[in-house]
Amino acid sequence: MDYLAINKANWDERAPAHATSPMYALDRYEDPAHLSDTVRYDQPRLGNIDGLRGVHLQCHIGTDTISLARLGARMTGLDLSPASLEEARKLALATNTSVDFHEADVYDATAVLGEGGFDLVYTGIGALCWLPDIARWAQVVAALLTPGGRLFIREAHPMLMTLGDDLRPHYPYFETAEPIVEEDEGTYTGDDTVFGHRLTHSWDHGLAETITGLLEAGMRLTALAEHDSVPWNALPGHMTEDDHGEWRLTDRPRRLAASYTLQAVKEG
């Protein structure tokens, strides 16, 4: 079984649990002014996106996609998991939000969505680790954008992703040919359900690898910021949550870059 099939089965089984979890709290979206914590955090850096044609790659159950649409963007969501997209479509329908959702692997995005049709490509937390080739991903991003279009990423920092439970480097910082294979019967939302599909295949990508991939794809880096927080409990037992859903090291949080925001524009 290839990595796509393994990861798709994992996400498909967990999507319904995520849709009913307090972490995603889908009932809050009944308020038309509500935005996901992630998009609310991103909003000052995103700026005005009203009227932009946007695509959210690896959109999962659509909470961030719908939040971006509420900021005025004409949003499309793309994900490999049909079960996740089913939950996303239900949420869009329940909240009367116009979003087009499509099922595809990121590397097939242009085959499904065409080239050059978007002003904004958005990628959120916990997305890039599922991709084996960051340079190939960058080529897809550039192909999706119209000249002058913008990429916006907020992602877990690769330094954070190296750490084991003891806060020591355990996983590779750089992209590797072989995946990181892990087995987990649970899920990050804290649900007590024991799942049957437990395997995942993932990859880490160094910050320079991501930036270099974008530059070689014809993108121009316009902003890069590092943050001491992430919007999930990435290191259980070592992090504390603030009032906005962000988690930091409990002890001396400024010693670790936990996430980063990157923006780049397609030249042309």
TrEMBL record:
One of its GO terms (molecular function) is methyltransferase activity. Keywords: Methyltransferase, Transferase. Coiled coil: none annotated. Pfam families: Methyltransf_12 (PF08242). GO terms for biological process: methylation. InterPro entries: Methyltransf_12, SAM-dependent_MTases_sf. CDD domains: AdoMet_MTases. Residues 56-151 form the Methyltransferase type domain. This is SAM-dependent methyltransferase. The lineage of its organism: Bacteria, Bacillati, Actinomycetota, Actinomycetes, Pseudonocardiales.
